[in-house]
């Protein structure tokens, strides 16, 4: 008698919505928990090549904490592809202007770098304040 390992299908996933409050939390800890939920590793049906994760809403992104000297020393780069167009911002500057991007970039770095990762990245919603427009999905709060 042959025994097979069950490989979950996309239709097996019960997509849940969850809210994570990032107020006074360390950036890396929040980002790793968010990536864990989006990837679906908390589910017993986890399959590496299938999107089995939840939709995640992160609130209070402007109140996130960075440890050590990361506010002054951590640098985010972007490049348009043209010669001499490399732009950079420190974490402090990015937190002032676009605090959502700090969490989005941290989570994106923890997801796979392929088609699945790009698809999973769309399941993350980050907001600077404590309000979000996803109340209709009835997201459940998750403690970190």
Number of strands: 6
Order of helices and strands: EHEHEEHHHEE
CATH fold group of one domain: Ribosomal Protein L13p, Chain: A
Distance between the termini: 44 Å
Tally of DSSP helical segments? 5
The fraction of residues in strands falls at 15-25%
Give the oligomeric state of the chains in this entry, treating copies of one chain as homo and distinct chains as hetero. single chain
- Helix percent reads 25-40%
Broad structural category: alpha/beta
CATH architecture of one domain: Alpha-Beta Complex
General form: globular
Radius of gyration: 17 Å
CATH class of one domain: Alpha Beta
* Largest beta-sheet characterization: 4 strands, parallel
Q: Strand sequence of the main sheet, in spatial order?
A: 5-2-1-6
- Unreliable sequence segments: none
Annotated CATH homologous superfamily of one domain: Ribosomal protein L13
Summed over residues and divided by their number, the pLDDT gives a mean of 95
What does this protein structure show overall?
The chain has 144 residues and is of the alpha/beta class. It is 28% helix and 18% strand. The radius of gyration is 17 Å and the shape is globular. The termini are far apart. Helix 1 crosses helix 4 and helix 3 packs across helix 4. It has a domain of 96 residues: Ribosomal Protein L13p, Chain: A, CATH 3.90.1180.
List keywords for this structure.
alpha/beta, 144 residues, two-stranded antiparallel sheet, 4-stranded parallel sheet, 6 strands, Ribosomal Protein L13p, Chain: A, 28% helix
